[in-house]
């Protein structure tokens, strides 16, 4: 179920990337190398930044925002075993601003990371 939701997020993200008028827009963007326990914090940052700059008025914005807020997406990005580990995560406003194109590339990388993680463990599970 999570896998389908993550595939849906990637499709919606791709549609929105092609639909945005200003790829030069500067947005707070989490880093490429997000620690496992900071994935949910990064997701929250991506979601809030998306809402702040694009709203949810457009078709693709609304669908993507809703999918990023879905419990299956959130559980798919929860790699952390304890809540205290998230205290080392940076706040959204502390992340440097990057062009919108880079923002979307990093969001896509985060979602793909989850998919790769799931594929790896599914293969490992089948193997044993």
UniProtKB/TrEMBL annotation:
InterPro entries in alphabetical order: 4_helix_cytokine-like_core
Protein name as catalogued: Interleukin-21 isoform X3
Species of the source: Pundamilia nyererei
Classification of source organism: Eukaryota, Metazoa, Chordata, Craniata, Vertebrata
